[in-house]
Design goal:
6 helices; single chain; two-stranded parallel ribbon; 6 strands; Double Stranded RNA Binding Domain; four-stranded mixed sheet; alpha/beta; Arc Repressor Mutant, subunit A
Length: 166
Amino acid sequence: MKIYYDYFDSPVGQLTIFSSGEYIVKISFEGENFDEGFFCKYFRSPSFINKDESVIKRAKEELCLYFKKSLKKFDLPLLLLGTEFQKRVWEELLKIPYGGLRSYKDIAENIGIPEGARAVGQANNKNPIPIVVPCHRVIGKRGELVGYGGGLNIKKYLIELEKGNF
């Protein structure tokens, strides 16, 4: 299976965008270790090709518009790779509007597991497509910024960007 990838220079650092050719499957932050095991788990004998193919081009265009505050909702073909529970959480994240915030508890309640805030946090931590699947919009129940794969400074930047503070 061919996995395409290319780089996008963003205000939060260089992002690496991975595609199956049809779908975006992962976005990694600068400095994040390359995890070939992630791909081996879901794709048979993945081979990696550095190519700016059409789905990646589209992702770059949409990310560019997002960072310019001209795009409020991504319209990319996504292949969410995770457990069924993780996918439920990530699909719920896609419902959080641009500039909106929800607590881990809110997400847990929305997916029918009111005591599942911690499990939601763990699923958030495994989100393979950050920014597009907006895990940065999930905060602690008291409004505090907690946990983000790209670092809290990036989470804060994305929240402030969506509030219009840049």
